[in-house]
Design a protein that fits this description.
With 177 residues, the chain is α+β, with helices and mostly antiparallel strands. 53% of the residues lie in helices and 18% in strands.
Length: 177
Amino acid sequence: MDTLGPLPKLFLTLSCISPVFLTYGYIALNQGDYLICASFAIAAVITAVSCLITLRFVEYKTYSESINITSFKPADKEISGYFVSYLMPLVSTTEAFYSKPIGIFFVVSFFIFIYFSKSFYSNPILSLCRYKFYEVTITTGGCLLLITNKNIVNISDVKRVAYATPYTVVEAKKKEI
């Protein structure tokens, strides 16, 4: 297993909270704070693009190995809950969440929760970019989170993976040598 250290986990986490940045940007726009709105929009784009670049790098440029999957199930069904649980309350309680201390507390708390709970599969940004998340069981009995842009219908559909984190793999796209 070869990982890139903490960077993929950091960027996966940041891309999970980029919709929160967009939501705060929308709130700022409604408040007439155009500079704050633009700042949040730029932060959302930077975090999302950073994650996509990191995933592409892992897919094509890092060490990959064959994988023997014994079972799999979709892990991205939580995304609708993400919107209902985290983003809608922000929009509906605009005044309360627009204060700087509460906003910082919310974003930092959300970041810490995602980072340490490894809840990357509730990532609407990657879903918009056609990535899918699967919980896969391998022959050793371990479970991994697989990120791919394919619909998996058969366990033999995935041949090689690259590790983004110790428990998160990305389907490798580079050619075997």
